[in-house]
Amino acid sequence: MNAIQSALLSKIAGLRHGFGTRHEPIPHAVADLWLERRPKWRQVHGAQVTEAREPHQELGDCDGIWSSAHQIPVAVQTADCVPLLFARDDGSRFAAVHAGWRGTYQEIAAAASNAMGCEKELDRWRVAIGPAIRGCCYEVSPELVAQFREKFGHLGADKFLTGPRHLDIQEINRLQLARLGFLHVEVIALCTRCTRDPDDSTRLAFFSHRHKPGEGRQWAAICRR
């Protein structure tokens, strides 16, 4: 399976993006800029969102990167966590966000929105929620379920608790975005733990930490051309 594109983001002129897969970890849409233009950072499963202004910029520890610069691919890597790609409808601002359970609990989607000033013009923003481990496969501790129920129960716990010990963090991020007021959100409803590659059913379509820790990761990336 090649890298996946969002129907919402594909309508924005001047942007390239993609959600990587096992077969194509770095989306082809940004591959020509990847080595010579990509900033440097370290993902730490937090909620820090940083602006990238120039190629090879050292961003430090962060789990969300936004930019308005041309030809700087911003990206996050995942292997079950939720990748989020944001873009303004004219392509002038965009972001890649990594939301594991910690980032989701800390509401990194809201942090990204605040960093880019989205709240002033939510009707102009598009968000794609990429492939991640879904409620069918994401079994966690009873204690973590209780934490999420207590903090996000007002969003509708029945929507993101798919079993006594199963969380759907894709859905929690969707609910958070809806609560923030985002009007245009697309969920790419594929589970990184169990989705098979349609071109080769003997293997999974994505790298998954739950399936095989440390085997690899795929990238979700977006840039302005």
> Structural class of the secondary elements?
alpha+beta
Q: Helical proportion?
A: 10-25%
Give me the Rg, rounded: 16 Å
What shape does the CA trace take? globular
Give the SSE string: HEHEEEEEEEHHEHHEEHEEEE
Counting copies of identical and different chains, the oligomeric state is single chain
Strand content: 25-35%
Overall strand count: 15
**Spatial strand sequence of the major β-sheet:** 3-5-8-7-9-12
Q: What is the distance, rounded to the nearest whole angstrom, between the alpha carbons of the first and last residues?
A: 25 Å
Short description:
By secondary structure, the protein is an alpha+beta fold. The protein has helices at 7-10, 34-37, 101-105, 108-116, 142-152, 157-160, 169-180; strands spanning 15-19, 40-42, 49-51, 58-61, 64-67, 74-78, 82-88, 94-99, 125-129, 161-163, 166-167, 184-187, 196-197, 200-204, 218-224.
